[in-house]
Amino acid sequence: EYIRIYTTCYDMCTQRSPYNWSRDLYQRHGETIEQYLNNTVLPALRDKTGQGGTILLNELKHRWSNHQIMNKWLKKFFTYLDRYYVKHHSLPTLEQAGLRHFKDEIYMNVKDNTTS
Known about the structure:
Elements: H1 2-13, H2 22-48, H3 53-77, H4 79-88, H5 94-115
Helix pairs in contact: 1-4, 2-3, 2-5, 3-5
C-alpha cells in the first residue's frame, strides 16, 4: 500500500505542466492536516478543558503523539514532493509544515488552559 501511494505521488509530481500536481499536493497536504486538527483534535481537547490540568495534558500528549506518527507517514508518502518541489521553491518541509500546523491550530488554542 505504501509503495502504491508513493508511486502515485511521484507520478503526479513528475508530469509536465499543466499536468504537474506538485503545488496542489503541497497545498492539500497542509489543508488536510489543518482539517484533521480542527475537526478532530481540537474538539477532543476542548472536551477535556475544565476537567483538570492533568486530564487535558494527558489528552494533549496523546494527540501530539498521534500527530507525530501521522506527520511521519505523510512525510514518507510525499518524499518525492519534499525532496524536489519543496526544496526548489524554498518552502518549509512537509515535516516542518506539519509541526507548524499543530502549533498554530492546537497549541496556540489550548496553551492557556494547560498552564493554569
